[in-house]
Amino acid sequence: MIVEQIWTANAYRNFNYLIACPETGEALAIDPLDHKKCLAKAKDRGWTITQVLNTHEHGDHTGGNKAMIAATGAKLLAHKNARDRIPGMDVGLGAGDVVKVGASVELESLDTPGHTMSHVCLLSRTDQPALFCGDTLFNAGAGNCHNGGHPNELYHTFAEQLAKLPDGTLIYPGHDYIANNLRVTLDREPDNARAPGLLAEVEHQDPGAALVSTLALEKEINTFFRLHSPSVIARLREAFPDLPDDPDPKTVFLKLRELRNSW
Ligand SMILES: [Zn+2]
Ligand SMILES: [Zn+2]
Q: What is the C-alpha to C-alpha distance for residues 162 and 10, in angstroms, rounded to an integer?
């Protein structure tokens, strides 16, 4: 499996992805908003885009579909419940479905509601797994729930699916928000051991050659995976004085998500 992370340099800071089979040169494009950059990269690498996958229905993820499919004839894949919101879907995905790319690449579809209720993540079946997580999980952050999502479901997606993936899983999110999110981490957990050094490292990075994190790193820097941290809980109590001494992780997650809405 070959992965190209494509930095769109747009105002929303989207990342697009190409995933290619090294044996056949067939490629799948994830959320190819910047269809021109995606097509140029595929041409450059000698790849043929045969599939387009939308992680979810928001326009900054589906906006390149039409031009991309007109140029390539690619099939369009997305969550099976997104058919009403994504025109021209060919394949509806459910949990556990496998997307094949060429002869050698297999990607498992995870049903990951929360940011929207019809959001899929893709998990590669490779020695070191890679997770293409759209707007569900960001570097040092979590997706919002303002446009068709629900924080409860986002919590369950984090706790029951994402947190259980192997620590070495590579994280490929739909946007470059790492620097701002690390500032949020430091606001929520001022004594976080890893965030200051990492912020200095990525603050001025070229998003065209962005750091790719792992789940292990996210567990160190992403507050939404640090629901048992005493300093996260103590700091949260300043905003929510009624928070119990030993709050359950779901309560902590929902309060963090609430505060993040007004950061
Ligand atoms: Zn979105
Ligand atoms: Zn987005």
A: 28
